[in-house]
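Entry 14: structure prediction run for CbiX/SirB N-terminal domain-containing protein. Input pasted below.
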Amino acid sequence: MKTRALILFAHGARDPRWAEPFQRLQALVQAQSPESVVKLAFLELMTPRLPELTAELVQAGVTDVTVVPVFLGQGGHVRADLPRIVDELKQQHPAVSFKIVEAVGENEQVLKAMASYCVATLG
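Run finished. Output tokens:
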């Protein structure tokens, strides 16, 4: 088992089709980082949720977890809910290293890619 995991953390929705772009993102990231486990977890309404997924990964031998919020901005879920959940996970799994990075929508490269797409739609 790989010891490093990258968890793409999304909000979740009632409609299962909502997760499709995140699943495609997961596949793209996994293809670019075959040495890591790349998984998708949700805050609510969908599974797996972050605590359950983390427990499975730790049981499988993962010792290093990076959480990437696949949110456009740093709202309450990213600023408050996610750090609280990860703090609880740190207490439950003290031998595991956890890191939360900025929301994807806050990253300059992502914003530039989105801007390029928007401009291209003017065609």
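Notes: DSSP finds four helices and four strands in the chain. Will compare against the previous run tomorrow.
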